Amino acid sequence: MTIADAEAPAHALTPRGPLSATTLATLMHADFGHRRTALVAASRDAVLGSTDVSDDEDIQLTLFLLYACAYGSLDWIDPGWEWHPVLIEARGILEAAFEASLRTLVTNPETPDPDARAIAAALFELTAPTPGPSLSRHIAKHATLEQAREFLIHRSIYTLREADPHSWAIPRLTGRAKAALVEIQADEYGGGRPERVHAEIFARTMTGAGLDSTYGAYADLVPAATLAPMNAMSMFGLNRRLVGAIVGHLAAFEMTSSLPNRSYGDGFRRLGFGEDVTDYFDEHVEADAVHEQIAGRDLAGALGEDRPDLLPDIMFGAAACLYLDDRAADVMREAFEAGRSALRGGAVA
After folding, report:
1. What does the pLDDT look like over 157-208, one tens digit per residue?
2. Contact call for residues 296 and 251 (beta carbons, < 8 A)
3. How far apart are CA 151 and CA 342, in angstroms?
4. Are 288 and 257 a contacting pair, CB within 8 Å?
5. In Å, how far are 145, 202, 274 from 142, measured between CA atoms?
6. pTM
7. Which of 26, 217, 238, 310 has a Cα at 20 to 30 A from 114?
């Protein structure tokens, strides 16, 4: 039986190699039992054959699909797959390779003293803005309408699920760090107001820009560089041993959000969009200026002070966030500056 034998789901995904082909076939066929072990073998083969797991199209699409089993973000995936032992084994193989790749590629910052203020200061130094070309500056001053809409497509992979990957850390934390994370996440989820949930605001942004706000609608078009940041968040959040990394990731994420979002909002206003599109970016200029203080001192700082053994992973998670987000942004910026699309198969009409 092949993928073609089954009715394709809405927003069907195209395999990017033997591993993702096997994964899609497995997830789409309930009677695939006798061949499920092929997924484990394909995972091992993909890792052995990859020159960069963190930017491998086949592996990153597969990880995206396997994590979708936990999120329920792709509704055509049966919930029964979430804890299937073969899928978990395959995911473990890929995660081990992905984590090893990141630990090789990312320059780990010096570990600060286990003091909340020292940890926050180290994170602010690590995430300080740098001069030179950037995606946010390009969107603010030069992006065309097509490029601005494509930017939203790339960002939809995380932002339509905004806050969810980091929320996996809540039950893994205690005390001050847990309280700080809940404070940040409560705001991300609208503070009790459904219409202010950040993912919902971004969905309105996409709709206002004439795009499909269904989660995964454009997953087939985005490259591995776009999938990898979301996959890293999922890996850090879903693995208890990496709780330090997901905390460090969130701290860096919040610390590098406010200024770029101001530029993104300015860019969309320049292109003639109204508040229905710019609201998301304007919301984050103010919200993330507050969040970065909580994330640096009360979340990452408190965790590192209470658990000094997690300090190296806190800094690793922050550095991994910067590395993957910068790479994804550079892929877009370089394509836009060259007058081409960064999407697989070209620009969306």
Report:
1. 999 999 999 999 999 999 999 999 999 999 999 999 999 999 999 999 999 9
2. yes
3. 9
4. yes
5. 10, 22, 18
6. 0.94
7. 238
One-letter amino acid identity for 63? L
Residue 342 to residue 218: CA distance in whole angstroms: 13
Please name the residue ranges forming H helices in the chain: 18-28, 37-49, 57-71, 85-105, 116-126, 135-141, 145-159, 164-167, 175-188, 198-208, 224-238, 243-255, 258-270, 275-293, 302-306, 311-337
Amino acid (one-letter) located at 39: L
The token pair that represents 223 in the structure block? 């490259």
Question: Rounded CA gap, 294 and 288, in Å?
Answer: 10
> Residue 85: is it exposed, middle or buried by C-beta count within 10 angstroms (0-12/13-18/19+)?
exposed
Q: Report pLDDT digits (tens) over 19-59.
A: 999 999 999 875 555 567 899 999 999 999 999 999 999 99
Amino acid found at 155: R
